[in-house]
């Protein structure tokens, strides 16, 4: 069974990030969503990144992009 989305505490936000990495050319598609404690979307974004070496690097880059946007919007 699916687990429910765990909301953040009062006066906090939750950032979710996911990536898709293609090792043949190092391209990445990443998506981010920032929500408040009620689940209301504050922003949703996607990025295409290029020339990354591995999936871990892709995840870290997407998290950094998401954190920058989260700081701007919260």
From TrEMBL:
It comes from Triticum urartu (Red wild einkorn). Residues 17-73 form the RNase H type-1 domain. InterPro entries: RNase_H-like, RNaseH-like_sf, RNaseH_domain, RNaseH_sf. The lineage of its organism: Eukaryota, Viridiplantae, Streptophyta, Embryophyta, Tracheophyta. GO terms for molecular function: nucleic acid binding; RNA-DNA hybrid ribonuclease activity. This is RNase H type-1 domain-containing protein. Transmembrane segments: none annotated. It comes from the Eukaryota.
């Amino acid at each position: 069974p699916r687990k429910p989305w765990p909301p953040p505490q009062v006066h906090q936000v939750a950032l979710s990030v996911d990536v898709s990495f293609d090792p043949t050319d190092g391209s990445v598609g990443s998506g981010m969503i920032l929500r408040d404690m009620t689940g209301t979307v504050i922003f949703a974004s996607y990025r295409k990144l290029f020339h990354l070496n591995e999936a871990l690097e892709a995840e870290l880059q997407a998290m950094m992009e998401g954190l920058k946007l989260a700081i701007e919007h919260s």
